[in-house]
Amino acid sequence: MFLELKAQATSILKDAIRKVGFEIEDSELYFETSSHADLASRAAFKLASLHKQNPKELASCIVSALEIPDGSYIGEVSVSGPYINFRASRHYLDGTVAAVLEKKEKFGCGAPKDKILLEHTSANPNGPLHVGHIRNSIIGDTLARILRRAGYDVEVQYYVNDMGRQIAVVSWACERFELDLSRKSDAAIADVYIKANVELDKNPEYIKEIDTLMEKVEAGDVRTIDSFDKAVSLAISGVKETLLRLNVVHDKFVNESRFLKSGAVHDIVERIKATGRTKKDKGALVVDLSDYGFEKTLVIQRSNGTSLYTTRDLAYHEWKAGQADRIIDVFGADHKLISGQLRATLNVIGVKEPEVVIFEFVSLPEGSMSTRRGQFISADDLFDKVTEAALEQVETRRPETSYEFKKQVAEMVGIGAVRYDIVRVSPEKSTVFNWKEALDFEKQGAPYIQYSHARACSILEKAKEEAAWDSSMEIDPSLLVEDSEIYLIKKMAMFDSIIDLGARELKPHVLAIYARELADAFNQFYRFVPVIAAEDEKVRAARLALVDCARIVLANSLDTLGIAAPEAM
Question: pTM for the complete prediction?
């Protein structure tokens, strides 16, 4: 709805600017929201500087030339200094209520757009996902959900490192140490991987065995490949379980070895050589990208002729480029250099480059994590801890309910708290996840938003029981005139623009902030305006319809954040 309001304001304003003798691009209208208007334009600043005029006088001149068509979402336009302020009409407010009730879960969805291939998580299969990994998963999954709601056809992939040095260590470890398969499979892999690294640190001569395994895999040795595959499958099986619990789903798991087997790695190395940018450095083949601003060369082949993860990643990206209109990668800050080199190398050989979302790391108050050193808290352990704490809260708040109800709500609240607390921070900012704060119902995190949705469901259920509401009855939205009602309607109307913003800028945190603000707006409305207790029957029906609208948009927001929307808490 807000996108249409902005589109109408754009059309009306550009027509008025033409009438006073000027032309302007859409991007130069400089629309923004403010406390003084639903939309404010700084176009007069731009035009005044170009044409040597007084911006305040020019703004007044433009507004005098404005014509608002009948039925417009624009109600009135005024001048405040050089700003041109637009206020929404009653038609916009009533139309928003009608649209939410009609479209329901489709409210806020954009028109069909291009295909996007989005890669996220792609953690090495040498153990379980830990807290350091799941920011990647949560940002990536939330972005995919936002992009889908914006209208894009999104395929989500996990790139499986099934043949690198770490996997050689895992394979070597599985042969050397007994796997405890009574444990979750990825945890069992981590156990032997940690033991192997201790052994390798004590006896560096064993590193030759790791190098030999890598050479055998590249040479196509069947037994070694089977050994690698078995270890990777065990780790990935456990990772999938963890991701599913986090409500993260990948459409495809792509093994990097396929690009070696297909010859794509060899082909891409030859094409890079043909550019004249490669040279030998201590026997290794490197690419000179200094004209792209990279002092450090990119190694694409070891001195023994084997490929690197980077080389196979280049082949993977070339393959991805043929699968979709856009490619998006979600990487941690430690990939900043390598992702830049990867983009530059693809540019050199004329392959479509990915858009890269770089995120800073999330940590726990306990500190940083490393699977190699065995210093990490697994995502599974974190989920158990958070869910257990959530269960204690549910038992305190709802002691009369069944254990099954408490357990179900605790899982929804616990996982929701993790997802929300991690995604609410802009990707480029580092963050510390404090699970106690994330679960605080008063701190306006996921539990607060989920509780707001449950409250809306409870109000509607109570109204049905008291025969005060029938969802099929016609309502008159124009009766919703209180400040808190209008503010809530306008906040709901902004949902499509928030989705659009998150999709354009690849910033999922904007939706997290919006969901909290929407919950605030709903709770303020309910606090100050009687709903079921409203004396006038038509007003009561309109307010209950507004509660239903809030329920719908809260549910849509939570769903797009990958968080469950409980009907009772």
Answer: 0.91
- Rounded to the nearest 10°, the torsion over CA 390, 394, 395, 396 is 100
63 touches 79 (CB < 8 A) = yes
Report strand pairing: 252-255 vs 278-281.
Answer: unpaired
Which H or E run includes 195?
helix 185-202
Nearest CA to 200 among 221, 169, 229? 169
Tokens of 207: 């590193």
Burial class (CB in 10 A: 0-12, 13-18, 19+), 537: exposed
Strand 298-301, strand 326-332: pairing: unpaired
In the chain, the amino acid numbered 124 is N
CA 56 remoteness from chain centre: 41
CB 565 within 8 A of CB 515: no
Give yes or no for a contact between 162 and 316, defined as CB atoms under 8 angstroms apart.
no
Under 8 Å between Cβ of 507 and 427: yes
| Residue 86, H or E segment | strand 83-88
- Tracing tokens 């009855």 back to the chain, one arrives at 473
Read off the pLDDT of residues 410-469 as tens digits, 9 standing for 90 and up. 999 999 999 999 999 999 988 887 767 777 766 778 999 999 999 999 999 999 988 777
Q: Radius of gyration (Cα) for the chain, nearest Å?
A: 28
Structure tokens at 13: 């304003």
Q: Are strands 284-287 and 298-301 parallel, antiparallel or unpaired?
A: antiparallel
Q: What is the pLDDT of residues 188-233, one digit of tens each?
A: 999 999 999 999 999 989 999 998 998 898 888 899 999 999 999 9
C-alpha 471/C-alpha 462 separation (Å) is: 13
